[in-house]
Amino acid sequence: MNTTTETTYTDIPTANILSTVILLVSNLFGLVVNTLYLWVLGFRMPKSINTTWFLHLILSNLLFTFIMPFLAVYLITDPHWIMGSFLCKSIHSLFSAVMFTSVFSLTVISLDRYSFVCHPVWYRGHMNNRYASTICICIWGLAILFCSPYFAFRQTRLLEDNTTAICYNDYTLSGSIPQNSAIQLRWVMFSFRLILGFLLPFAVITVCYLSRDGSRKSVSSNY
Question: How far apart are the first and last CA of the chain?
Answer without folding.
Answer: 90
